[in-house]
Amino acid sequence: MKKTKTERDKKGDSRVMVAGHKKKKKKALEAAGIKLNNNSLKFRLVKDQKLAKELCSLETQQVEFVTNYKFGVLFCLPGQSENQMFNNVQGPHCADFDEFLNFIGDRITLEKWTDFRGGLDVKNNTTGRESIFTKFHNCNIMFHVSTLLPYTEGDEQQVERKRHIGNDVLLIIFKEGDTPFYPNLITSNFNNIIVVVSKLTSEDSRTFYRIAFAEKHNEGSAAPHLPEIPIFPRDEHFREFLLMKLINSERTVMKSREFRNKLSRARLDQLRILVNQFKD
């Protein structure tokens, strides 16, 4: 059985879990980008076999960024502030919004849900009873819909709703009425792509959608690109176009230097938690 050990430098700042034969440890450390004084090399045996599972789980999370996506969806009535949008609840005024949700995905029951859950509770209904989910090519997409997340009476900021939607890289705003929407209304530092969708109805009662994309850090527009007049009929061609652009837009942001740094810091924090958990 290969042994897993913890390595740190003289200051105790850099640690790494190393598995394998002694002769391979130095190469493993070098591959991890860790430069240590040879005289300071002291390995600590970790006997708990749960460590390997935790490390595999951490690696799996990195891979899931490629195939699993979670997008926020916020319902906006004319002239609303950010907090007012988060306070909207289901009702007859949401008919066009519900039509759009049913267009982009399927309404699923969260309890006992076995597919990608996007951070939602699938055991105790603490994040609502339903959500919107779809499979698109080889990707899973869970939509964090504001009106389907639990509403907290008396909470002006609806912190529980913001806990999910505020941590989504891409946020869809379904806007009612003709009042312009300004992306700077959204204060979350993590919402980097704002997609504004509004419904239009033709004289012969056909449904169209107007869409607009805004990027906070201007990483460049992802393909497929919007036409000069970004108005689309409600059909399968538009659905394919929209979902593809949502995925590619998020991928573009995730490859940016800012987000690579954020992910690196998050990964380092997770590794530090493991070190502290298994160091004794």
Query: Looking at the structure, what is the overall shape?
Result: globular
Count of helix runs = 7
Estimated helix fraction: 25-40%
Gyration radius, rounded: 23 Å
What are the main properties of this structure?
280 residues; alpha/beta; 8-stranded mixed sheet; 32% helix
Question: Your description of this structure?
Answer:
The strands form two sheets. The chain has an eight-stranded mixed β-sheet with strand order 5-6-7-4-8-9-10-11. Strands 2-1-3 form a three-stranded antiparallel β-sheet, sandwiched between helices. The longest helix is centred in the C-terminal third of the chain and has 22 residues, at 257-278. The protein contains seven helices and eleven strands. With 280 residues, it is an alpha/beta fold. The protein has helices at residues 22-31, 50-67, 82-86, 95-104, 159-165, 236-254, 257-278; strands spanning 4-8, 15-19, 44-46, 68-76, 106-109, 130-136, 139-145, 170-175, 193-201, 207-215, 231-233. Mean pLDDT is 85; it is low at 6-16. α2 runs antiparallel to α7 (257-278). The chain is globular, with a radius of gyration of 23 Å.
